[in-house]
Amino acid sequence: MHFAFSDTAQSYIHRLQQFMDEHVIPAESIYFSQLKRGERPWTVPPIMVALKAKARAEGLWNLFLAKGDHGAEFGQGLSNADYAPLAEIMGRSFIAPEVFNCNAPDTGNMEVLIKYGSAEQKQRWLQPLLNAEIRSAFCMTEPDVASSDATNMQATALVEGDEVVLNGVKWWSTGIGHPDCRVVIFMGLSDISPTAPKHLRHSMVLVPMDTPGVKIERMLSVFGDQDEPYGHGEVSFTNVRLPISSIIAGAGRGFEIAQGRLGPGRIHHCMRAIGAAERALELMCQRALSRVAFGKPIAELGGNPDIIANARIAIEQARLLTLKAAWMIDTVGVKAAMSEIAQIKVVAPNVAQTVIDQAIQMHGGAGVGADTPLASMFANARILRLADGPDEVHRAMIAKLELKQYKKSAH
Fold first, then answer.
1. In this protein, which residues make up the domain named Acyl-CoA oxidase/dehydrogenase middle (predicted)?
2. Class of residue 370 by CB neighbours under 10 A (exposed 0-12, middle 13-18, buried 19+)
3. Which domain holds residue 55?
């Protein structure tokens, strides 16, 4: 593995960092002041519209689309290793991913449509998403089953003649509250036979939000916050009828599509988590040097030097492992990188959560309020340990792959 970033990556790193410093970070306070919390919290702040137009004009747009996934056609054609440091830079700000049209779940949904969507589906949904004219959501997790095991899924997507009929309840559907959310990808059982192969029973279906039978039952809060303007909703689907052409890639291919969606997306999440950890460490160091207690800067008190040193070590380790996973996806593919992907899914959010928590501690009361981004960053890091599957599932995968090579040699 080469540790130096490519010339292309270095160019984008410089441009993106400059844009973040000049436009995004200074706009954060304006963004939240325009979010109109209270009577109408689900709005699009005008500053976001302006930032997106500026980013697109400067070619800092749809950066997430990898070279091998028609990236040159739809995005900038960067490799995963090229994009990883850019995702880290975006991770320093809550608002940055959307500014560059690189925010989940839209990124994953666009990747699905590029890889598996029909020409009609691409025209109707992909192009507006690439242009940020609409937003989307992904409806997979269910309230009544342990969704860490997707074979537990109860919602159905049954083919009846030339239609597919959806029934079920989903929750934690991120982005469903955004005023521009126009379509969701729904995953459900299209083969309810108990003897059917468990990974060939599911389908993914494109569902316009205005389809009869689709209802947002409630918006869910996370640590008391509704995460406006995106939000996480509980959504019911009651006899929702759609043309069979709404199924992505055909019935029974839901698991295949899900696996194709998960690899690069985890690189994105993990690098953003590392970016958040870097910003937290930066704020921690600034606070530790500027705040005096008991006659000394708090950087010199107690175990704080060790805390700062350990944070730096942990971030560097997490970054290197994530870059290795990105490099492996580029060079040997997602399947060969499954262990590394699972490893970073455990490591990056845990490192971010720990570093951000330590930064909060050094800030005292200021760390848990709205004067710094630390409280929101902590919540995001903690959520990430569930959102892409719980740590325990990823550890089980790592152990399974590790033991597999020894089982082969034993025979």
1. 137-240
2. exposed
3. 7-117
